[in-house]
What does this fold into?
Amino acid sequence: MHWHLPSKSAAMLTVMLASSGLVGIDAHAQQCTPETPQTVEPPNDRMSDTRLLRRLVLGLTGTTPTVEQYEAMAAAATPEAREAILRSTLDDALASPKFYERMLRFGHEWIAVGAYTTGAAGDAYQGDMSGHLFKCAANTLHPGAYYHVNESKDPDKQCNDQDADGNPAVPVVNTVEPWWAPGTRVEVLGKAGSNVTQVLDAKGQPLDCGIASGGYYDPMLPGGCGCGPNLVWCSPLAGLGSASTHDLNVQRRHPYEEPARLFAHLAWHDRPLSDLVIGNYSVGTNWLRALYVRLGRQMGSNALDANTTWWRPDADGAPRDPLHPTPNDPQAWREFVVEDLEPFHLALTNNRARSGSLDRTYRFDPRTTTEAPKGLPTAGVLTMIGAMSSFPRERVRAARFLEIFACQSFTPPPADVHFPPYDTDPAKGGTCLHCHKTLDPAAISFKRWDFNPASSYYVPWPFIPGMGRHRVTKQWLSGQYPYGGNSPGNRWRNAFLPNTVMTPVTPEQITANPEAVLLDTMPESYTLLGQPGDGTMGPLGFGKLLVRSGEFDRCASRKLYSMFIGRELDPASEKHFIDKLAREFVARDRKLRPFIRYLFEQPELRRGL
It folds into this structure.
């Protein structure tokens, strides 16, 4: 800091100091002579062994040590014996199912997604995109039997063996093993339990029984349809009671759980944490698996109709969570390659093998072809149904995933910064340029997830535009009925403007192929996080940038350090230390247990805060 005194005041100060003996040759020499640096003793803040024991157990399992563990530490006579106890405790904690539970809680804290609401819930839950099955009341002739929501105008009559006019009727009852309860059998009344796969509409046109549509409360299949093999086109969810966001006995909670469950799964099974953003697999219960199966069916693929194993937990021996060891438990979080259940989530490996390789690549450019892409490359959390739906727009997805996986923050610009005037592109002008210059190149990757009111007006369901049953035509972008209002095409015509950073296509290219507005590959001329794109389509291209830039590793290292050491790292003043942690994280193949063992060796773990 510099003090500037007027010359007159400075002169008076000099005279005063001289008269006091504080100025002169001796004083000048005294000021200029180097002082002997004081010896600073390092703080003696090393934790006691019992406190360190508590820190290890509490941090890794969420519980405190047992009395026996404390007594063993107190009885240890030498530092070597106490160190051996600490290492044994570390090993035991990392092998305990409580470690999985602790990582699950941490996964929710780190990968914070919202409830599965957009595209899933209005007055009632419709996110399963299935025909809803109701249960007959206990005081009917078929207590507990299921019937399809639209098969009878008066379900009480069907449940009591009566026709619509109340006359006696011969009941049609089928006994079926349902996908949601393998190893059991349920009664199903009427056509719902049949093998009818196609019916005719009022104009004599065929209707696919595997395609559901939405009602005000409950989705339904076309009238007269069966629910498919093992009822896979239907679900036992009905009315207002199926919309719980916390009950794991119904479906809505499961898409919210999926990101954190995948994190805990990677930690438990010693997989690279980078699979969170570039892996082609996930974990799921029967409820969650059914959601992916139904998305693929609604998209137009019947590939899973003949598959009778995806809902049998004991059929494939897939790795699972340690909390559900029973072989046929439908609530077990079991690993699956997403394409095995939903054909439009591409695995990009031979025989759809599990992979988190950076070599997985799929290139598609709608500016050069009118063909549909094969699908959307799977990219861990970045392509999960619940995660994509909880952030319902592409820029929001880009912002949230940059915050979660790259530790980016988006704040207003300083007041004295000036920007070019805004025209039509927030990434090129106006105050919003401050954030959109980063957001829009990232948002390109997240265009192919939206919500379509065509199948369900009250709760528009999620879909992947430009593929399957959802090819985009010029009418989608016209703004004319029925493509106005809240239709996705009407939003695109206003949000995906040509010749902008987020939509680098020309009006001529859109005229030639309306699906060009869905371009979701970051051009190789762009950079994001200091890296150029490699031409990979969709969220996988974004995930590969996160990993290749090193930002995922730095962010993960910071999150894990804060979790286990208990202190947030400052990226401004501790950049070199963060870089060192990231190198150690990568050197251990980005696996959590080895990185925790590395942190255990660091002096800071053993210091009090």
The first helix runs from residue 7 to 19. The longest strand covers residues 131-135. The two ends are 32 Å apart (CA to CA). The chain has 19 helices and 15 strands.
